[in-house]
Amino acid sequence: MNKRRAARRRGPAAADDVMWSLMQAAHAVESQLEEALAQVDLSGAKLAALTQLVEADEPVPLGELAARCACVRSNITQLVDRLEADKLVRRVDDAVDRRSLRAAITPLGRERQAAGAKKVDEVRRKLGKALGAIDHAALKRALSDLD
What we know:
Layout: H1 3-38, H2 44-56, E1 60-61, H3 62-68, H4 73-85, E2 89-93, E3 101-105, H5 107-130, H6 136-144
Antiparallel strand pairs: 1-3, 2-3
Helix pairs in contact: 1-5, 2-5, 3-4
């Protein structure tokens, strides 16, 4: 086998190895996030919705919350149902549109969001420590090219 053919074989295999490594790394980070958030009785979706409500600092229409969380309205309705059952949010009437409801974060929801954000920061620091020796800017550029 000549050198050119051998090099072609190594190229895709190396790309495959990188692809699988990235997928395994993403899965590991996702698992660590899920485990960390479970310690404060949250999921990633719940934390995302609570964070949007904290940042808005006022009740948010469910349709707008769905858009902010990049999901469809039926999903946000179910998510708000679960958050409401956990006493983290409550539905309030919209003063302008009587047909609309808004999600309002409760004091317990604010506490849980803050606890979840701390857990996310812990995972982020652990990841940063693991990747400490690499060029973060180069990695970010390379990964952003995947979009």
